[in-house]
Amino acid sequence: xxxxxxxxxxxxxxxxxxxxxxxxxxxxxxxxxxxxxxxxxxxxxxxxxxxxxxxxxxxxxxxxxxxxxxxxxxxxxxxxxxxxxxxxxxxxxxxxxxxxxxxxxxxxxxxxxxxxxxxxxxxxxxxxxxxxxxxxxxxxxxxxxxxxxxxxxxxxxxxxxxxxxxxxxxxxxxxxxxxxxxxxxxxxxxxxxxxxxxxxxxxxxxxxxxxxxxxxx
Length: 217
Hints:
By secondary structure, the chain is of the alpha/beta class. It has helices at residues 3-28, 53-63, 96-100, 115-131, 146-156, 169-174, 203-214, and strands at 84-87, 93-95, 105-110, 136-141, 162-164, 182-186, 192-196. Helix 2 packs parallel to helix 5 (146-156) and helix 4 (115-131) crosses helix 7 (203-214).
C-alpha cells in the first residue's frame, strides 16, 4: 500500500471516530436537567423513576387538579385506541380514546419548561370556565418530569384535568407537529376538527379558533 493510500485510510478512521463521538454526545444531551426532555426530544418513558406515588402525593395535593374524564360514549378516536396514560391528578390509568369519546374535546399539549405554554394554560382554564361542561379541555403534559408539571400547574393556579404523556404518544398518534404548545380540537364523534400548532394569549382567541370547529355558539 502506498503512503498516500495509508494516509487516506487513517483519515477515514479518524472521521468515523469523530462521527461516533459526536453521535454519543448528542444522545447524552437529549435530556435536560433532572432527566427532563428538552424541546424536540422524545422521552423513552412516561415519567421519571423518582416520580413515585409517594413522591407525587404532595405536588398532587398542591396542584388540586380536576379529575380526568371517565369513559364517554362510543369507541373514541381510532388513532388514540390502545393508548393508556396516567391521570396526573390522582395517578389512575386513563384510556385516552375512551376518555374523549362522545364529547367535544380540546387537547392542549404542553411541557413544564415551555414558556409560551405557561402563558397559554391560564387562558385555557378561562376558556373552560366560559364554555362550561359541553366541551372538555384536557391538558397533556409531554415531559417525563411529572413533579415539575404539577408544581407548574399549582404555580399558575390552573386546575384542568391533565394527562401525563412523557413519551408523547398522543401527539404522535394524532400527527401533531413537534412544537409546543399545540392544541388538537376533537369533535364528539372522535374526528379531528383541527390541529393548531400555535399559542393562544386569551380565552377569546381560543374561542374564536375552536368554537366554530365544534359547533359552539
